[in-house]
Amino acid sequence: RIGPEAAHPDQAYRLAISPEAVVLYAKSQTGLFYAVQTMRQLVRLQGKRLPALDILDWPTLAYRGVMLDISRGKVPTLDTLKELVEVLSSYKLNVLQLYTKHTFRFVRHPRIGAGCGSLTSEDVLALDEHCRRHHVEFMPNLQSFGHFDRILELPEYSHLAESEMGWTLSPVKEESYALLDELYADLLPSFTSRTFNVNCDETYDLGQGASAALAEEIGVGRVYLNHILRLRELAARYGRRIQIWGDILLHHPELIEEVPEDITLLDWHYEAADSYPSVEAFAKAGRTFWVCPGTSSWNSLFPRLTNSNANIRNFVRDGVAAGAQGMLNTDWGDYGHYQPLGLSWYGYLFGAEQAWTGGAIEVADFEAKFGPLFLGPGHEQIIAAMHKLDQTNLLPGVPHFNRSHTVLALFDEPLVGETITDFPPETVSQMRTLAEEALATFEALAPGHPQELTLREMALAARLTAYAARKVALSQEIRRGLRDPELDADRIRGYILSLKALDAELEVLRAEFEELWLARARRSEMHIALGYYAGLRARYRAAINWLEQQRQALLEGRPVDADLETYHAGDYRVLWQTWPG
Prior knowledge:
By secondary structure, this protein is of the alpha/beta class. It folds into 3 domains: about 45 residues, no CATH class; about 300 residues, Glycosidases (TIM Barrel, Alpha-Beta Barrel), CATH 3.20.20.80; about 200 residues, N-acetyl-b-d-glucoasminidase (Four Helix Bundle (Hemerythrin (Met), subunit A)). About 50% of the residues lie in helices and about 10% in strands. It contains 19 helices and 13 strands. The strands form 3 sheets. The protein has an 8-stranded parallel sheet with strand order 6-5-4-11-10-9-8-7. Strands 2-1-3 form a 3-stranded antiparallel sheet, covered by helices on one side. Helix 17 packs antiparallel against helix 18. The chain is globular.
C-alpha cells in the first residue's frame, strides 16, 4: 500500500520483485506510469535477472519541469518535441513549457512570428495530447511585459512600447491589454493545462517612458504589480491561473504580500551558489513558488556543467527547505540558440533527479545512472569527454557571469577581438588539448551508437572549441609578430595562408552546424546563428586584405602598422555585444 508518509501519494508507487512475481502498485495512473519507468530502468541496468527488492518511492517536489526556449531563433520540429516529452517523462519529469515571445501562429495577428517556424494551434494540440499520454502537463507560456521586443519591432505594434528601447509593453495604454487579450484567445484554447506562465521578467525600461508619470506618482513597483493584476484578470477569462518570474518582485519585496495567492512566483537564478536566500522572501510571504535553475547550455559552446550542477542541486535543496512547490529547469537560447538540444540532456536529467529527491543526489551518483541508462555503450568515456569540454569553461579568462567566452573566442574579431588579450596562452593551449581529446572520443563512438545524433552534436561542440582555440592562438601570434623587429614579408604571407585555411575550415563547420540544426529543428530563424559564421568570414577577408597591405609595406621598405591604427573593424559585434537582442 501507499502509506501516509508519501509526500505526494498521487505520484507515489510501489515496486516489489520476488522470485514469484513482479508487482507494481499505485493509487493513480501517474504513479503506475512511474513504477513502469523504474522497472524499465532496472531491466536496462540488470538485464534478464532482476534482484529481489521492494521499492516505495515518491517525488519530493510535486511539479518537476523543463522550460525550453523557442523564441531565440530555433523552433524544434514536432517530432523532436514529442521525443523530448518521451525522454523527460521516462525520468519522471511532469511539466513542459516552451518559452514563447512570438513563435506561435496567432490567427488574429498573423504578422507576429511569420517566417520564424512558429508553432501552430494544430502543433500544440498534438503535443498536448502526447504530453497527457506521458503524464506531462504542457503549460502555455507567453511573454506579456518585458522581452516583448519581437512583437514591438513590427511597425503595427511599435506604438505600444514603453520606450524607444522597444523592450517592454506599455502598461498605460489600454490597447496593450486588448492585444494581450487577443493573443491569449488565440493561444490558450489549444492547451488543456489550467496554468499559464505570462513571464514578465526583466522589465528594464519600465517607468522610463510612457509610464514615467505614473511611476513617479505610485512607484515603479506598483506599476508592475498593477500590470500583473490585469494579466491575472485576462487569464481568468480563459480559466487560467498565472505564473510570473519573481525577479522584479525581489526588487520590490514590500509588494510580495500583495500578490494574489493564486499566482505562482518563479524564482530564477542560473549561477552556482552555496545558497539561494531569495526563496525565503517568497516563503515568508506565504506565496506559492517554484525554483528555476538552468542547464547553463546557452552562451557557451558546451554547457557549463560544473556551474549548472551546483546551481540545480543547491537551488532545489534550498527551495525544498523553504516550501517550494516545484522546479522549472530552464534551457535558454540567447543570441540565436546556436547550441544543439543534445547538449542539454545531461542538465535536464540531472534536474529530474534533484527535483525528485529534493537535491539529495551527488554528481557521481547521478552519472553512475545517467551513463548506462541514457548514454549507453561507452558511457564512461563519453562522460569523461563531456567533463573535458566542461573544463574549457573554467580556464583562466573564459568564465563570466551567465556565459563562457569559448563561444566569443569562436566568433571574435580575428585581429582586435577581446579574447586575444583576455585569454592567456596557457588557456588557449589547454582549451585546444581538452577539446581535441574529447572530440576523439565522440568521433570514435558516434557511428551506429544509440545516441549517435547526440554524440555528433557533442563532437561539433568539441570541434568548434578546438577551432576557436587555434583561431585565438593564430591571432595572438599575429599580434606578437607585428611587433617583432625581425618580421619579414614571408612571415606575413604565412599568417595570410593560415587565415585563409581557417576561413575555409569555417565553411565546413558551418555546413555541419546547419545539418545538425535541421536534424532536430525547423529552419526557423537559423539566419541569426549563420550570420555569425558569415560575419566572421567577412572579417577574415578584411584581416587578410590588411595583412597584404602590411606585407607590401615591408617589401617597399616601409614599417608595418604594429598598433593596427589603420585596421578598422567597423561595427563588428557578436553575441552579447549586440544586446539588447
